[in-house]
Amino acid sequence: MAVIVLFGGASNERHVSVASGQSIARALGNPLCWYWAPDGRVYDVSVADLTSHQRPFEIDFDPKRPAIFPDLEQALDTLPVEDPVFVLALHGGAGENGTVQRMMEKRGIPFTGSGSRASAEAFDKGRTKQVLMGKVRMAESRTVGEADEETIRSTVEAMLERYPKIVLKPVADGSSRGLYFLERDGDIDGVIRSVAKLRTPYIIEQFISGRELTCGVTDRDSGPLALPPVEIVMDRGQNFDYEGKYLGKGTKELCPAPIPDAMRDEAQQIAVAAHKALGCEGYSRSDLIGADDGVYFLEINTLPGLTVSSLVPQELKAAGIGFREFLETQIEIGRRRVTARQKTPAGSAR
């Protein structure tokens, strides 16, 4: 078996992907490491070159060797190793929205994380809410496409009439890029202009006041296992944006979360319910709010960060699950999935 850690990509989460790739490569010891560059080319990099890269959350990775393939599809069509399995350290964009997963499924190549269908539905926050409607508690939200300022304004104003504070976030993005919090007396014009310039679909959502929680789920032989939730505590005036998540500015992450048992249990139940309803495989992480009237689901990540500062590794440690053990389980799940599909007769029901 040849384990290939695939990291990089063109999304604005590629820096996080490099940091995840570093953690995975260190844990696995000596895997093959492929860097998928923003221009599409694929590089074979040494573990030493990857792990020695400094400040990955801020500085682009610069491979030292020439590219070995012009694009990922050609790389997958001409794999230079036998019995490969990909450990996906990709975040955002084509790496998480089902595109890469579909490429590998088409070729019968095993990979870690959810399949293409679950990845696509979980990546689209609007679609996620449709799938989970009636299954978990969620904030009210509305979706605007690549709209002009007036269309965005009418939706923002309608939501602010109902709620004193709202959240604006891209429908398909992560790591809190492009995230805005807006109150009735806030800079409405400035936020609307910023969102309109991005030319991307947005969710405009009721802000739920409460405790910021996140809860990972990992598949085991006995079924999905909810990990101990993390509570994110922010300094006054801070938001859990990219700098807070990865540069440690104005936030603390408490694991296990110091919350009442009832809130912990509800958070774990919601995380498992979302994981199962969306058909996630391997692992996922749900972001939640613990409010006075219960726990609210916000969104789910099918390839959450696996960096040294990421939330899922903290939860695994609190649960007594070693990081290498976790990765080996994910590799086995990916291999079993391909074997099961190969045994399924063509044209049979899902």
What do these coordinates show?
There is one protein chain. The protein is of the alpha+beta class and 350 residues long. The chain is 36% helix and 24% strand. The protein has three domains: 111 residues, Rossmann fold, CATH 3.40.50; 124 residues, D-amino Acid Aminotransferase, Chain A, domain 1 (2-Layer Sandwich); 66 residues, 2-Layer Sandwich (Dna Ligase, domain 1), CATH 3.30.1490.20. Helix 4 runs antiparallel to helix 5. The two termini are 28 Å apart.
How does CATH name the architecture of the largest domain? 2-Layer Sandwich
Largest sheet composition: 6 strands, antiparallel
Total strands: the figure is: 15
What's the number of domains?
3
Specify Rg, calculated over alpha carbons: 20 Å
Low-pLDDT residue intervals, each spanning 5 or more residues: none
Shape: globular
Task: State the order of secondary-structure elements, H for helix, E for strand.
Answer: EHEEHEHEHHHEHEEHEEEEHEHEEHH
**Mean residue pLDDT:** 93
Could you name the CATH topology of the largest domain?
D-amino Acid Aminotransferase, Chain A, domain 1
| CATH class group of the largest domain | Alpha Beta
| Share of residues in helices | 25-40%
Name given to the CATH homologous superfamily of the largest domain: ATP-grasp fold, B domain
Q: In terms of structural class, how would the helical and strand content be classed? A: alpha+beta
N-end to C-end Cα span: 28 Å
Number of helices: 12
DSSP strand content? 15-25%
Give the arrangement of secondary structure elements.
Elements: E1 2-8, H1 14-28, E2 32-36, E3 42-45, H2 47-51, E4 67-69, H3 72-77, E5 84-88, H4 99-107, H5 116-123, H6 125-132, E6 141-144, H7 149-162, E7 165-170, E8 180-183, H8 188-198, E9 202-206, E10 211-220, E11 223-226, E12 230-234, H9 242-246, E13 251-254, H10 261-277, E14 283-291, E15 294-301, H11 311-318, H12 323-343
Parallel strand pairs: 1-2, 1-5
Antiparallel strand pairs: 2-3, 3-4, 6-9, 7-8, 7-9, 10-11, 10-12, 10-14, 12-13, 14-15
Helix pairs in contact: 4-5, 7-8
